[in-house]
Write a structure and sequence with these properties.
About 10% of the residues lie in helices and about 40% in strands. The chain is mostly beta strands. It comes from Rubroshorea leprosula.
Length: about 450
């Protein structure tokens, strides 16, 4: 399998130093007592906001500090082409950063932050597909006094590095048992087939005809997630999708192990009582657990699909949350696992169009704990559509996380589970398409 070229542009190691005036004005918000933040913009990409730590004027930025990511931009080959294209209306490409003192957000339509200054970092993206490049690393003077020694100082690191990815595209909606193609430029090559089926509570082996038989211990492990829940009239249960290679051998599966049940007196799956999927990989003649996806319907103005994904290799090992966010129920969005490259693995650009995922759990955020230590940086993303729209998920997986075909298949199965969760969490007053309705169950 040949990957597609991608580039990861990161902004990190932010810090701010502001000289203390001898007679500070009362109207000025000083960062030593109030937080600072910045807004980061790259051409047509969504605006990202990040907190800026304050450093006393007499201190220096710590040498050899591990990169702390504030914002990340993922650039495909198409993105690079549009960013580097010459325009008669614009100058050279630059990253634009506006620094504010005060808190983020707005009150009564007025921004609460006070603009301190703006920074432009020129970007030359030619050749970054094949080699890393640092555009800036150090201090920049900002504000009206930028040319004087008394100016505020803003520290940042801006760099780009190759981040090749495998790209997979479902040829149809997951419930229609589609083929999955690998995309490489204009080439579409089939690599997987999917089989959607219903698993009845009386026979867990009927998820797919081609699944290997389960051992009794495996069945008991699956049962522990779903059978203890009180059955309700309003529920969606037993969905399963199996990913096969081109020879017909099963290489991954996603099985709904906790039914999606409407909360009492409502028509929605609540956060306090989510449905869940188990993502499985074959091993030793049976299915072995790899991860667990929970999903629910958020309340409030967002009214989106809430989700949480955690790695769970077996019952004895501690789990770690790799992704937890919300997708728009009407517009869809991107499910993303991106662990950044900071010491704590967090990568949290606010106001980003894509969900932000931070690992949580036992151990040093998973990095000192096998097998979590293998997951760093960008891991995967899956684009899914909103309710009522034809969804053919597009899955991107970092090359560094694919050592075999089964690795890629696990991420494809996870993407299918996310897409199917959009239907599983639809209000029970709405009907589902016929492919999702089992005649033996009450599916709403």
């Amino acid at each position: 399998m040949d990957p597609c070229p991608f580039v990861r542009l990161t902004v990190g190691n932010l810090a701010l130093k502001i000289p203390v005036a001898t007679k500070p004005a009362r109207s000025v918000v000083h960062p030593s007592s109030s937080p600072c933040f910045c807004k980061i913009k790259l051409k047509s990409f969504p605006l990202q906001t990040a907190v800026v730590p304050y450093i006393p004027p007499e201190n220096q930025f710590p040498e050899n500090q591990v990169q702390t990511i504030a914002a990340t931009f993922h650039l495909s080959k198409t993105d690079l082409g549009s960013l580097t294209a010459k325009s008669i209306f614009g100058g050279k490409l630059s990253l634009k950063i506006a620094i504010y003192t005060g808190r983020t957000g707005a009150a009564c339509g007025v921004n609460s932050g006070r603009l301190l200054g703006k920074v432009l970092v020129p970007l030359d993206l030619s050749g970054v597909e094949s080699r890393p490049f640092v555009f800036h690393n150090g201090w920049i003077s900002v504000g009206k006094e930028a040319l004087k020694d008394s100016s505020a100082q803003f520290h940042l690191n801006v760099k780009a590095e190759p981040d090749p990815r495998f790209v997979f595209q479902f040829d149809g909606e997951p419930e229609c048992s589609p083929q999955v193609f690998q995309i490489q430029g204009n080439i579409r090559q089939p690599v997987f087939t999917c089989k959607f089926s219903f698993r009845s509570t009386g026979d867990r082996n009927q998820r797919s005809r081609s699944l290997p038989s389960e051992s009794s211990s495996s069945r008991g492990w699956l049962t522990s997630f779903g059978s203890e829940r009180e059955r309700a009239v309003k529920e969606r249960k037993g969905w399963s999708i199996t990913v096969h290679d081109l020879s017909g051998s099963p290489v991954a599966a996603a099985s709904m192990v906790t039914p999606f049940v409407a909360s009492p007196g409502t028509d929605r799956v609540s956060r306090s009582n989510p449905g869940s999927w188990l993502i499985l990989r074959p091993g030793d003649g049976t299915w072995k657990p790899w991860g667990r996806l929970e999903a629910w319907r958020e309340r409030g103005s967002s009214d989106g699909l809430g989700y949480r994904f955690e790695l769970s290799p077996d019952m004895s090992a501690p789990t770690i949350v790799l992704a937890e966010s919300t997708l728009s129920s009407s517009k869809g969005g991107k499910f993303v696992i991106d662990l950044g490259s900071g010491s704590n693995g967090r990568s949290t650009p606010a106001n980003s169009a894509s969900p932000v995922c931070s690992p949580r759990g036992s151990g040093d955020f998973g990095y000192g704990l096998w097998p979590f230590c293998v997951y760093r940086g960008f891991v995967m993303s899956a684009r899914v559509e909103g309710e009522g729209r034809c969804s053919k998920p597009c899955v991107e997986v970092s090359v560094q996380h694919v050592n075999c075909l089964e690795d890629a298949a696990a991420f494809v199965a996870l993407a299918a589970a996310v897409d199917l969760s959009m239907d599983a969490c639809r209000l029970f007053s709405q009907r589902l398409r016929k492919e999702l309705c089992n005649q033996q169950d009450s599916l709403g």
